[in-house]
Amino acid sequence: xxxxxxxxxxxxxxxxxxxxxxxxxxxxxxxxxxxxxxxxxxxxxxxxxxxxxxxxxxxxxxxxxxxxxxxxxxxxxxxxxxxxxxxxxxxxxxxxxxxxxxxxxxxxxxxxxxxxxxxxxxxxxxxxxxxxxxxxxxxxxxxxxxxxxx
Amino acid sequence: xxxxxxxxxxxxxxxxxxxxxxxxxxxxxxxxxxxxxxxxxxxxxxxxxxxxxxxxxxxxxxxxxxxxxxxxxxxxxxxxxxxxxxxxxxxxxxxxxxxxxxxxxxxxxxxxxxxxxxxxxxxxxxxxxxxxxxxxxxxxxxxxxxxxxxxxxxxxxxxxxxxxxxxxxxxxxxxxxxxxxxxxxxxxxxxxxxxxxxxxxxxxxxxxxxxxxxxxxxxxxxxxxxxxxxxxxxxxxxxxxxxxxxxxxxxxxxxxxxxxxxxxxxxxxxxxxxxxxxxxxxxxxxxxxxxxxxxxxxxxxxxxxxxxxxxxxxxxxxxxxxxxxxxxxxxxxxxxxxxxxxxxxxxxxxxxxxxxxxxxxxxxxxxxxxxxxxxxxxxxxxxxxxxxxxxxxxxxxxxxxxxxxxxxxxxxxxxxxxxxxxx
Lengths: 150, 423
Description:
The structure holds 2 protein chains of 2 kinds.
Chain A: H1 2-7, H2 10-17, E1 30-36, E2 41-50, E3 53-62, H3 65-78, H4 83-98, H5 126-141, E4 147-148
Parallel strand pairs in A: 1-4
Antiparallel strand pairs in A: 1-2, 2-3
Chain B: E1 9-12, E2 17-20, H1 22-27, E3 35-36, E4 39-40, E5 42-43, H2 54-67, H3 77-97, E6 105-108, H4 111-126, E7 132-136, H5 145-154, E8 157-161, H6 171-177, E9 182-188, H7 200-208, E10 214-217, H8 229-232, E11 236-240, E12 251-255, H9 257-261, E13 273-276, E14 281-283, H10 297-313, H11 315-334, E15 339-342, E16 351-356, H12 361-369, E17 373-374, E18 376-378, H13 383-388, E19 394-398, H14 405-421
Parallel strand pairs in B: 5-17, 7-8, 7-9, 9-10, 10-11
Antiparallel strand pairs in B: 1-2, 3-4, 6-12, 11-12, 13-14, 15-16, 16-19, 18-19
Helix pairs in contact in B: 2-10, 3-10, 4-5, 11-14, 12-14
């Protein structure tokens, strides 16, 4: 059960119960949708990008605890950051989750997002944790198609 | 050549009534005897696919070790033997379903392909613009999408009969939808999400009163109950081999001979012809007309072995034991605080779908997996049904006759842990 406790840490459960920035956004200038067909996770992501900076970000959607907590904590961590910094953060986050099981990883640069480090022990759940990030990436790039993790 | 399957029967008491010895049956399924994350495997995703008894595994390896060759072609002994086993399995299926003739048993890849075959071959021939195809709200995508495709191609229209909150077909509404434009009815025998057993005989009689042909999707029914196509009188009945303890990639389309005769081939190729020139091809007789190309020979032989195995135990006894297990599980799970079941029909088989308060199906699935328990989380290929109950996903337990009450007890314990995590 130890890896389960690692996966469902209190901070993840708290964010999944009461996600931050969980609402629509009237003045958003970028939007994207994402879904995980396997389990039905889906979200709408709203973004206000000005002068290359993420001024505001929010989301609406439904899904599992890992997905919701990840989306919630992502919005906290990218708000106010430059687009290039956001992309770098996504890359680091992705690297943490897709590394080989048991391989050490310096998660310090990810700050609070390091709580998702244990997700890599659950390969089928990696998609839940990265869905919001893929959707954010797509919104930044201004892609019209809905994102899917398949 | 064909080994007699192990029979798990024990006479008990003076009544001579057979006891259902589940521990003995479990010995027939090698895959069940393993640990997952250090815990004994508890396999409860039987509606997705069933495990295979040793008799099926052996029949397939025996075929490759001794008899492998193509069928209906060679004049040599091996081919003759392979053909004999292949056609022998067809007769086993025929007897199992009580079809009139082996000509009515067409081997396909699975229930999905069988429905596509009927939609494309029958539908393309007989559907006209404005015609209606009637299904229900509880269908699997495999009994929705093929009809949408043919509707698009022919100008026909898909109509959907509603269900109530218990997950039962509202029969009056179904009947009200049967009209002059209705040209086909296609319904599941048992719902893969709700476990609801549909009143298929009544459905068929009602459709026949208006001369409408009926297809029954029996993928979730045939592993759990006696199916008699002559008694049902449906035009088509389809199922997948892998859900009934046979191999994947093989399934059955039963079709009344008279109606199959009127249908053009679904695919062209070898075996489905009797003569070919560049000017004209004459199609083969039933059922070969619908079996183009080298078929899944070992799959058919494996399916035959699965049917032998089931019949050695008795499908009625299997169904009775599973029903007892379903009632036990339903009682045990309904005591879990915050657990809500989806699908509470009076007539049910084998399936329990549920929600658990704040815990999403996917989280439940992950936590149970760590206890060695395999259950399904998701939309179960029935998204319209999920929308009907306004849920994105459910957790689903689906039982087979090798499951035990002790396994159910363990599931309830593990679910209690989920409740603790998400409290």
